[in-house]
Amino acid sequence: MLYENRYFTRITANLVNRLARDAQQTRNDAVAPLETPWWEELQEARAQIEIALQRYNDIYDFAPAGYLLLDHCGAILQSNLTGATMLEVNRADLIGQRLALFVSEADRAALHAFITQVFASRSQQVCEVALKQPSGQTHHQCQYVQLLGIVSPDGKECMITVIGRCIA
After folding, report:
1. What's the count of helices (H) and strands (E) in the chain, helices before strands?
2. CA 150 to CA 148: how far, in whole Å?
3. How many whole angstroms separate alpha carbon 63 and alpha carbon 132?
4. What pLDDT was estimated at residue 90?
């Protein structure tokens, strides 16, 4: 649902923006000013879509769980801010990196099997892995995360929810 809403909102916003530009051009090209009642309605619809898009972005980025979008190889295609924070990487630097780089070596085989199973089964799968400790960290605290994954509707991407917990 989250995946579909993001694209629906983007497509709808793009359509409204295009209609607004076309309508403005029509108004600019006219010899006499056009008084169009739909112009104000279109502007109001555009404003409402922009508000909804900003709200969606805030909900996505600041959710209490991390959201990752992976390809078949486990490369991160997209992440919300919470996901990047959990992996302790700037979101821009995270894109294109393999999720396995952030998972302890002992759990990488389980992660690989999980991703393979998500794409093969097309049903929600669950996996728990330990994240690698950041370099320079001296205490022995390990963060375990639960991964909930399902394949995208088009079958090209794996949508992951990351729920973290710390163990001392």
Report:
1. 5, 5
2. 7
3. 22
4. 93
